[in-house]
Amino acid sequence: MCHCGPKGRNNPCDSRCSIEGDIAFVVDNSNSIGHKNWETQLRFIEELVRGFVVGPNDVHIALLTYSTGYKIEFHLKEYETKEEVLARIRDSNYTGGSTGTDRGIRMMRIGIFNPRNRKGPRTGIPHVGIVVTDGCSDNPNATVSEARLAKTENIIMFAVGIGSETRFEELIDIATRPKEQHVFHVGDFDALASIQEVILQEICNALCPKNWTASGKKCYYVSSTALSYAEAGQRCVDLHYSATLATAKTKIEYKTITKMIYTKTGYNFSYYIGLDNERSGGADFIFADNSTSVLYSEWISEVPSGQRQGCVMLDKTHSFMWDVTECSVSLPFVCEIDKTRRT
Questions:
Q1: Pair (267, 323) in one structural domain
Q2: How many domains does the chain have?
Q3: For position 301, which CATH number holds?
Q4: Is pLDDT of 305 > 70?
């Protein structure tokens, strides 16, 4: 089941999955699958693809099948429409053979995600590998090694196991952590349909919406529209149901946000972040996510007293250090999505 936010708030279930990413399916084509289950497996992949917005500036899809050998059925930049991708998936043939999962992951790395491949990945775009298998690999050590290299190369790895012959520990080794969000197992091929919405949601959650920037476990959006503090907070929610004004709770987050702003506009504008003491009547400062422990700050001078009630901005005249302004002032702002918090 897909866990959704309020209707009409650009949540992943309403729009399915409007993200920007390069996604490679790495699919077991070995003897144990058989023709009937092969068709079921392809339908499962088709349904996942239907959940994405596929296009030149949206999601790119690639498919690699593996057994004793491997075959790159199509590359990331080979097809630009969902209809073309779905048709090509349906044309993929069953071959049989052994379970060379290590070879499949390796060719995903050096073939599909090779930056020198003219049909390969885009730069600055998240890369995702989805391994689907119904058994243990022929060479478990090599499989773990190749998966580790893939993750070192910043490929977000998902593992889908089918049936009793898969080894759950191997699925965990293949996938990115935490395993609860990247590892899936079903008892048989017919049960794949029961997890496709959950997998789609987790892939969507692992990446950022289109026009947002990923950094660590958060996605950021720098808006050039000037609004009051309350209007800015509402605009963040309108952009994505789980978004808030950016909280900048750590030095790393603060540096990330200010670098994005400076790259976009220099020191030409002050920006709202998600922190105010208006809601407390000038007492404690409260973050946009309603937490109150301000353990890190970048105030221009000392922490403002209760006589300076208002909302926090990154002040353009002081290299984006924190200051308080009236919440009715119209300023541009920064939104964030905390990927560990949204569901």
A1: yes
A2: 2
A3: 3.10.100.10
A4: no
